[in-house]
Every structure is written in C-alpha cells, then in structure tokens.
Design goal:
By secondary structure, the protein is an alpha+beta fold. It folds into two domains: 111 residues, Phosphorylase Kinase, domain 1 (2-Layer Sandwich); 191 residues, Transferase(Phosphotransferase), domain 1. The chain has eleven helices and 17 strands. A hairpin with a 5-residue loop joins strand 4 and strand 5. Helix 5 runs antiparallel to helix 7 and helix 7 packs antiparallel against helix 9. The longest helix is centred in the middle third of the chain and has 21 residues. The chain is globular. 44% of the residues are buried. It comes from Tetracentron sinense (Spur-leaf). Keywords: ATP-binding, Cell membrane, Disulfide bond, Glycoprotein, Kinase, Membrane, Nucleotide-binding, Receptor, Serine/threonine-protein kinase, Signal, Transferase, Transmembrane, Transmembrane helix. One of its GO terms (molecular function) is protein serine/threonine kinase activity. Its main location: membrane.
C-alpha cells in the first residue's frame, strides 16, 4: 500500500475536482506536486527520457525517498487528451495484477497532466524482440514465460477483475518488462469497460495501432474481448519470430507476419518462423503449439478466436487443438480486389485517418507510394466513412 511521503503534496480535493472522477479506490491515489516531478526527472532532461508514445514522452525519475518512477507526460500536441487521461486513471487505479503495470499517482497542475508509474528497468518488450543484439538475451524459456504472463494479464482484464475491460491497444511496446523480465501490460488510455453481460460494442472513433487491430475493429468499429485476443495472437507470433507484423521483407517481397506464418504453416514448415537467435534453445513441440495457438487467435472471424481462458489452457496443456482457419488481413474473405478511397482530390491523397485501409491493402501485397503511412492510427467514422470505398490509383 502507498505510504505518505514528503515527496507528495496533497490528496484528493484538487485532483478529483480537476479530473472529475471519484470512486472509493481512486481516493487512495496520490497526487504529486509538479515541483516534485520536475526535481525527480531533472526538469525532464533528455538523459532521463525513456521513450515517446501517442500520449507523449515518458521520463525516468527518482523521488526524494530514492524510489524510481516512470513519468508519462501528456503532450500538448498529443492526439490523446483529457478523456484518455481520466480513462487511464479510473481504470488502472482499480486494477491489481502482477502482469499489469502499477499506477503510483498523478500530477495535474498548471498546464501539466502526468501519470506516475512504477519504473520498469528493462523498458518494453519491443526493445528486446526486435533488436538484433538484445533479442539474443531472450531464450525460449523466457519468451514462453513472457507469452504466458501477457495472457494472464489479458485474462485478468477480461474476466478476473471486478470490471470487464477491453484494452484496445495491446502491442509489444505496451508490454513492459521489470527487473526479472516479467511482463506488465501498460497504457490503458484507450481501454473500455464492458457491463456484466455485454460482449461487443461499436464505436465511431477507431483508435489503435495497425498491425495489431482486428479486422472487425479496423473496418467496422466493432470491438470485444476477441479484439484483444487478436492483438495477443500478433504479439505471440512476434515473440516467436522476432519480426514485426506490419512490414518486413522476405526474399525481396513485402509481407506481414500473419501471412508469413500462415504460408509456413500451410507448407508444414512452421518452425522456419522461429527467431534464429533461439537456435538450439527451444522445444520444437512447444514452439509449434504456440504458433498453432497464435494462428487460432488471429483467425479472421472473431467468433472463431478462443477466449483468453482457453488460450491459457491450450498453452499449458497437452490438449488437441482445432485446426486454424485462414487468418485475417489476407487476400480473400470480405476483401475482394484492391481497397481504395474516393476521398481526396488527387491520386491517393487521403486523410491520415484512412491509413488503416491503405495498410490493409498493403498487407495483401499492394503498393501505393503516395498514401500516408504511420504507426498509431485513429479513424472517425462520422467524418471519414470508408467502409465500401476503394483506393483509386493504387495498383
């Protein structure tokens, strides 16, 4: 339990008035004085900067009692604003699990809005599995432990916590690693709470990171626990392969990892997917089972994907697994022919919020040099309705 420290300013009234939320759990969330955070981060020095996300920069800090913290500072130009800030505070303050990052407090003062987390010395999962040198530090045993830890964290969100929470932005960079390399899911700004019997919801504002978004969410704004299952499946395949889902080259061809995995699986050579840095350190049977589970998680139809409770059971038990169906984001299914958009005034001059469709087109082998490309994306269906549109001039 958090203990009062001279590093803290006050509790409650100012914070809850500013954020506009107050529940029994959140009354215990400390409020940090801005001067405390400025001192802890050496005035947000570049040397203490840990990274940058859609929310804004993240800094390492050390409180006057010696405790290390991570400070997530809302950028004034961030696409995420006060609503996401409040959302993260309301959600994560209620959650306690060894595979979720701990929120230590927050700071709202002057024009600053910051979230204060426990410090994760090994940063994020992507800084290991996609780094040609650091990935060698993760043998198969450790990677499997990370896979299971992430699965347990997602299961807690979906089923075991007091709330049913859909994360909506699960990705390798949102999985942090502590000193013992235990995974902790972070970044709940886009998460949503489901009611007791609610299983699916629709949104006009699609947010997330392409490569991790399920097809029904990216294209129709539908999200459910199966959306997170899809994202988990992508992360699982990334951990095994050491490759990002969105965009790598194999034999001079642009591929996405899901299609690459499916091709290997269909040709009965799935072990060719395994990261070469793990050569000789893994159990072929265990890896094949994980690849199988990953493909079940990224199936095109949400109803075909297993819930996280089943995923964990399949990962840890010698049970017969059903054959995976064709994954999402492949040529076929509901995506016949090229995807295009009539938006814009010239060839492929589309709004950045339409980048999801361009991404889907690119993932099935198309190219469009003038279309925007990026990581985190946001689509507003009311302003940019493109469900049945096509990319003109993309061949």
């Amino acid at each position: 339990m958090w203990r009062f420290s001279p590093c803290l300013l006050v509790w409650g009234p100012f914070f809850w008035f500013s954020v506009g939320v107050r529940t029994e759990n959140e009354r215990q969330l400390p409020f940090f004085d801005l001067s405390t955070i400025v001192t802890a981060t050496d005035n947000f020095s570049l040397a203490n900067k840990l990274g940058q996300g859609g929310f804004g920069p993240v800094y390492k800090g050390r409180l006057c009692n010696g405790q290390e913290i991570a400070v997530k500072r809302l950028s004034k130009t961030s696409g995420q604003g006060m609503e996401e800030f409040k959302n993260e505070v309301m959600l994560i303050a209620k959650l306690q699990h060894r595979n979720l990052v701990k929120l230590r407090g927050c700071c709202i003062q002057e024009e600053e809005k910051m979230l204060i987390y426990e410090y994760m010395p090994n940063k994020s999962l992507d800084s290991f599995i996609f780094d040609q040198i650091r990935k060698a530090l993760l043998d198969w045993t450790k990677r499997f432990e990370i896979i299971v830890g992430i699965a347990r964290g997602v299961l807690y969100l979906h089923q075991d916590s007091r709330l049913r929470i859909i994360h909506r932005d699960l990705k390798a960079s949102n999985v942090l690693l502590d000193a013992e390399m235990n995974p902790k899911i972070s970044d709940f700004g886009m998460a949503r709470i489901f009611g007791g019997n609610q299983t699916q919801a629709n949104t006009n504002r699609v947010v997330g990171t392409y490569g991790y978004m399920s097809p029904e969410y990216a294209m129709d704004g539908l999200f459910s626990i199966k959306s997170d299952v899809f994202s988990f499946g992508v992360i699982l395949l990334e951990i095994i392969s050491g490759k990002r889902n969105n965009g790598f080259y194999h034999e001079d061809r642009f591929l996405n990892l899901i299609k690459h995995t499916w091709d290997f699986w269909s040709e009965d050579r799935a072990l060719d997917l395994v990261d070469s840095s793990m050569a000789g350190s893994y159990s072929a049977h265990e890896v094949l089972r994980c690849i199988h589970v990953g493909l079940l998680c990224v199936q095109e139809s949400a109803r075909d994907r297993p819930p996280m409770s089943t995923v964990i059971f399949m990962l840890g038990n010698e049970t017969t697994l059903p054959p995976p169906k064709q994954p999402a984001f492949m040529l076929g299914g509901n995506h016949n022919g090229p995807l295009s958009s009539s938006s814009g005034t010239g060839p492929c001059s589309i709004n950045e919020k339409l980048v999801v469709v361009y991404t889907l087109y690119k993932l099935v082998g198309g190219t469009c040099d003038n279309a925007p490309e990026g990581g985190e994306v946001e689509r507003d269906w009311e302003r940019d309705p493109i469900r049945n549109s096509t990319f003109s001039e993309c061949k």
